[in-house]
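Tutorial handout. Part one gives the primary structure; part two gives the three-dimensional structure as tokens.
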Amino acid sequence: MKSPLRMFRGLKLGRQEAKEEKQQHRPPMNMDDLIQATQDMQDMRSCCDSILSASATTANNAHEFSEALEELGTCLLKKTALNDDEDSGRALMMMGKAQFALQKIFDVYRIHILRTMDKPSRSLLRELEVVEELKRLCDNKREIYKNMLAAHRVKGRSKHCKSETISSKELQEAQANYEEKAALFVFRLKTLKKNQFQSLLKQATSHHAAQLSFFRKGLKTLEMVESYVGAVAERHHIDYQFNDLEYVGLDYDDDGDDGGDNFCGYDGSDNGELSFDYRKNFQEKNVIYTSRNSIEDTCDGALLSPLIYLHAVWCKLPVHS
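Part two.
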């Protein structure tokens, strides 16, 4: 009968032999997974770069528009003091203050862009850079393994080779190191890919909420001024229609068939709101504003007409007849 110590030694030796046999018969790594992971990594990098570029452009444009609104508001407030007509002066003052209110809304929107689009994308990009470093380590281990395998094969063909000999055990260790790094890279990339989709969905919904808040607050700001603007427009016979305002270059369907989905070609003319009919000829109706009784000849008419029309475009109000 074997002693417990001898039984333990035999069990230990059996485990070592099984481990060595497992290493010798290691299944080949799935190269398709490695190739796909490499392509996914490149696609993720491209996506992150595109989002960062788009968010930076949007934020810069919002900042420039904000500065333009401030300049316009300052101009209107300066003209208020030069006007003898109290009602017209009040209308100019209200529209001037509205520009400053819109400027603040634009500034908040720009901050939202940086928070919801730029910052998360940069965070994801840092995680992607870690995965890219894993890919470089994987490539290095692969090159080491390939060189050792080539040297081992040369040794097997030539018995008189004087180069450094590489044992089968060293070759197996090199292969194991390479496959370990490759498996880690594939695993981390797949995990990050799932996180990227979730992050992108969160970014898009957050940005949508920021846009919705931005336009709602802007519209509310302009509607508070509308009673003053409407009264002055009626008094000076200023017609600030904007139904014929064109959006050139947005006609995606030349044959007029929108496939039943009129999202981009929205036409709100049924309720008197801004018409998005892109199929009208811009050259025939390139009119910014009209004045029925030649009010443009006076100082008040020349200043108020375009400003009231601009306010109407901002506010998307019903057409006044």
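Part three, for discussion. Residues 20-26, 247-303, 317-321 have pLDDT under 50 and may be disordered. The chain has two domains: 28-224, 226-254+265-321.
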